[in-house]
Amino acid sequence: MDPDFRGDIDHHDGTSDAVPGGYVEKRRPGELGFAIFLTLASLGLLYSAYGISGFEALSSPGSVPMATTLAMVISAIIVALRTAKLPKVADETLSKDILPVMVIVFVGFLILFGVLLKPLGFLPTSALFLVAAFKLLSRKSWGYSVTIAFASLLVIWLVFRIVFTVLLPAGIVPEAEFIQIFRNLLSGKG
Amino acid sequence: METILAILTVFTQPQLLLLVGVGTFAGIYIGAIPGLSVTMAVSILISFTFSWDVLPAISLMVGIYMGGVYGGSRTAILLNIPGAPSAIATAMDGYPMAQKGEAGQAIGVTTVMSFFGGLIGILVLALAAPFVSEFALTFQPRDYMLLAVLGILLVGSLSSGSLVKGIFAGAFGIAIGAVGRDPLTFAERFTFDFKIMEGGISFIAVMIGMFGVSEALQQLQNVNMKSVRQKIDRIVPSFGTIKKFLPLSLQTSAIGVIIGALPGTGGDIAALMAYDHAKRVTKNPEVPFGKGAMEGLVAPETANNAAVGGAFIPMMTLGIPGDAVTAIMIGALFIHGLNPGPMLMVDQPDMFWFIVGALLTSNVFMLIFGLTGIKIFTKIVEMPRSIIIPLILLLSIVGGYAVNNSITDVYWMLGFGVFGYFMRHYGYPLGPVILGVILSRLLDDNWRRAIISEREDLGRFFEGIVTSPLSLVLFISVILIFVSQTPLWTSMKNRLFGKAMS
Amino acid sequence: MSRKLIGAIVALGLSATFATAQNYPAKEIQGIIQWGAGGSTDTVMRSVTPHAEEALGGTVVMQNMTGAVGAIALNYVLDAEADGYTVLMGAENPLLYKIMGLGDEDYSAFTPINLLARGTPLLVANIDAPFDDYAGMLAYIAENPGELKVGATGPGGLPSVITAMMNTVEGELDVIAVPYDGDGPALTALQGGAIDVMPAVLGAAIEGVRAGNMKPILVFDTETNATLPDVQIATDANAGYETYLPWGPFFGVFVKNGTPDDVVAALTVAYAKGAENEEFVSLMDGRGFTMMNISGQEATEFLTKWQQGTAWLLDDAGLTKASPEEFGIARPGE
User: What pLDDT does C253 receive?
Assistant: First the structure.
């Protein structure tokens, strides 16, 4: 076994952080591409770090960024070269093991969530997300998905919005007015 | 005698006892929810307890602080999402235990060890506060820098896969920490002229994304797999177990107190350093580190709770906060008409002893609440994946938003979540990224302070290291740890001691 | 669920009908604090607001929004509606954003509700420093050029302004400026001997001075300070300081320009009442802040004068990214 490898050879999917996925002597689909991407990105960052202040002084704001991005470039190149030499894993494909449809769908959900969060507001966006996600994953009835989605959303909303007064984006739901009515009712002013 | 009375104030007034209990209970849950931080809870409490007397207000805050530091371990063990930064190291071995159905046992050990660490921290606070604070003050910028370098060398023990990939991840983390306007000169770094990047990238957003979102995406692949049944007998660890870990927990508690007492470093760094220490001194763990080693729970959990007591040391003796939470408490004491500072101990020693008493009480409550209700908690992991995955994602989003009320943070969190997903698949460890982000400022700022103080002269800089005993000790530790991680040393060690050892 | 829906519809109806100022505040108000929890801006705002809430009869939910020297919070409030439901709780920093190249907006886009209090700068030294007063410090700098370490908090921060003032009044001082990210960490470093002197706001240094952990050198004010009556004041040390003093960081509550007048009036009355509260006043005294409690025209004039004086001082010291002239900031007295 590679003395550099201290992980668990049985886990290739990285099910826990302490045990990252991947194989020692083989490369997974897309691994080389990822390594090359990291190398290019590191080079870009190194260039950007150089742009902060150049070699002006030891204490310049760019000195530590330059040192760290240089470390990134060197380590990324070593990883890429090593990966390139390894044989491919025979029984894995990109679409089956790395990016199955479900993962792509959920990444799409998350992007949609980010786009809708501000204009639509937290409550409607989350409700849509939860209902769709539960329905898709559990394959049970709509009623089941909707009930669980609303129940859990209510709990999350109560904890964050009411107890911890985190002002989640209100969007189209007049949350603040709604809460004020309750406040007034409670204080007898309403 | 008066001292004892002051410590016991909490018990003489049922109201205070109740508040410490409520605070601890709330703290555990606040700590457990990613994105809700103790810092945030305590600062909300400042306005909330504004009209109260000072003792009840402090009781509640102390409870939340103690409970919150402990609570972060819950979600780290059960879901692999550290509820608080100080629980990152706990996830390394806690989550593998939960995957084997040993979540109950993991929480049990964590609770008892948190209690133990907390106790040590409080004892040091009570008995040696002036001494420790004087020691903490002697840390110069170059010492903080060396401490950060020492921390960065932990990459070695945090990357269980390829070391080169670990180095990449660590350097990447340091670069993430540098994004935004540099706090010392306001120069823009890695902002690419985008306005939204000027504020930098929230460390919590990176943490929640890398651990929470990427874990949830990962789990999508086995959504139909049966959840692991959790064994919930044997929650309280046996006396033998505790005795076995006693030497280790004493050492890691000491690390926690000192790192906690240093202004600018807190439980997160303490826990990671303790984890590394445990890995170094434990020759033959029953289960390997990273697969559910008990030592990997004992070390960070004793250290981060010991850091609580440590953080109070400079606060009570000098009026200098040991971390973000004590900074807010100083503000709270001001609002209640006290002047936290070096004179507080002289003018109002009762206040000091009251806080010691409240911390002790809270520590006990933590043990009680921690060991009860584990059954309900472990039920979380037994929930069907089809329900838990969307909930983790939603909670991550809310948590990422709540840290700084910023949608930008949510985008970062999602981005790092997807990136982390690929890192996991291709064997890049995530721990070093977080380590890098945590240590980035400590390293960068103090390096620059140190070299500016020496007028940009490297010769004078090294002269300073050699002539100061503290710097010299730190410097030698850095070199020793660095050398011990290189292959050259390993082969030399085998040649020298190989025969004698086997 | 249906009850909630009805509630929401009722709320929508109510807010549409009564969202005029007679009913202000009809919902909770967001108070955006520019600085982090536990800082002095945070402490001041969290202690005055409960009193103002009482006078206002509403709820102010305070949020810390940090980053980019407060510019993130400022822009957030600017992006919100000018309806008085998003309030900026800030310090002096935005007045320097333009010349420091930190942003394109400052308080000129805002209506001041109340400028609560002003801090007094105090020069403190490490307890083992080889001098005890201002004259001694100047002599030490002259004899040991480039050796004295002065704490700083980045361009535009209080130490940079005070150092610029000293350089202008006393001629270039050859010292090393060691940057910290706030006066708290810098004062800690001062006690540990990592830096020798530090210009800090009086309130932050006062407890250390009282305990004898640091030496007060000079109070940057025109009048003797009640808290430190024995410490020399700047205008006594050198009459040249009279041009720039009194000067100090301040805390204020602001709303976006274009907020209805009656809403501004309601908030102004509430915060003026809050700032008169005895508890708050004694708290500010204890921290060494000078109460201002000014609003309206008076506040606007104060802001203009502050910005002119400070901007040109920094510009003359060569610390700015852009000349104040570019932004129409007139030189004081012109």
Answer: 93
Looking at residue B502, what is its pLDDT?
37
Q: Say if residue A185's pLDDT is above 80.
A: no
Residue C10 has pLDDT above 60, yes or no: no
* Band (C11; pLDDT cuts 50, 70, 90): very low
User: DSSP letter at C27?
Assistant: S
Residue C11 within a domain = no
What's the pLDDT tens digit per position in A17-34? 444 566 767 788 888 999
Boundary residue ending a domain (C188, C211, C243): C243
State the total domains in chain C.
2
Range of the domain at C205: 121-243
- Asked whether the beta carbons of A117 and A111 are under 8 A apart, the reply is no
* Residues in A touching B162 (Cβ below 8 Å): 4-5, 79
Considering only the beta carbons, identify the residue of A165, A173, A176 that sits closest to C27: A176
C-alpha triplet C318, C91, B45: angle, nearest 5°: 145
For residue B93 the two structure tokens come to 């071995």
pLDDT band per the 50, 70, 90 thresholds, residue C126:
very high
Beta strands in B93-236 (DSSP E): 180-181, 188-189
Comparing CB atoms, the residue among C1, C14, C61 nearest residue A177 is: C14
Q: Is C328 on the interface with B (CB under 8 A)?
A: no
Could you tell me where the beta strands, DSSP code E, fall in C160-316?
176-179, 197-201, 214-219, 250-256, 289-294
What is the pLDDT, as a whole number, of residue C8? 47
pLDDT of residue C254: 93
Q: How many contacts, defined by CB atoms under 8 Å, are there between A and C?
A: 38
Given a cut of 50, the residues of chain B with pLDDT beneath it are 499-502
**Domain enclosing residue B157, as ranges:** 2-453
A183 touches chain C (CB under 8 A): yes
A contacts of B417 (beta carbons < 8 Å): 110
Asked if residue C189 has pLDDT above 60, the reply is yes
Q: Which own/partner pairs from C136-141 qualify as long-range (CB within 8 Å, at least 24 positions apart)? A: C137/C197, C137/C217, C138/C170, C138/C173, C141/C173, C141/C174, C141/C175
Taking the Cβ of residue A147 and every Cβ of chain C, the question of whether any pair is shorter than 8 Å is answered with no
CB C191 within 8 A of CB B137: yes
Chains in contact with chain C (at least 3 beta-carbon pairs closer than 8 A): A, B
Q: Is B290 on the interface with A (CB under 8 A)?
A: yes
Chain C residues with CB under 8 Å of a chain A CB are 1, 7-8, 10-12, 14-15, 26-28, 30, 59, 61, 63, 85
Q: What is the pLDDT of residue C334?
A: 59
Mean pLDDT of chain A: 81
Chains that touch B (3 or more CB pairs under 8 A): A, C
Considering only residues A5 and B118, tell me which one the structure prediction assigns the higher pLDDT: B118
Q: Which of C12, C27, C63 sits opposite A180 (nearest CB)?
A: C27
What is the CATH classification number for the domain harbouring C183? 3.40.190.10
B140 contacts chain C (CB < 8 A): yes
Identify all chain B residues contacting A158, using CB atoms and an 8 Å cutoff. none
Q: What number is the ipTM of this complex?
A: 0.86
HSE on the CB side for C310, CA within 13 Å? Answer: 28
Nearest to C37 among B140, B184, B328 (CB): B328
Partner-chain contact B47 C207, CB within 8 Å: no
Kindly report, residue by residue over C65-109, the tens digit of the pLDDT. 776 778 888 888 988 888 888 999 988 888 888 888 877 888 888
| DSSP letter, residue A171 | T
Taking the C-alpha atoms of residue B210 and residue B304, their distance in angstroms, rounded to an integer, is 21
Mean pLDDT for C142-157 is 87
Contact residues, B window 211-240, toward C, CB-based 8 Å cutoff = none
B334 and C43: CB-CB below 8 Å?
A: yes
CA distance B306 to chain C (A): 22
Query: Is C36 inside a domain boundary?
Result: yes
Is residue C21, in this structure, part of any structural domain at all?
no
In one-letter notation, the amino acid at residue B76 is A
How many domains is chain B built from? 1
Q: Which of C214, C243, C272 is the last residue of a domain?
A: C243
Q: What CATH number is given to the structural domain containing C318?
A: 3.40.190.150
Instruction: Tell me: pLDDT of A2 over 80.
Output: no
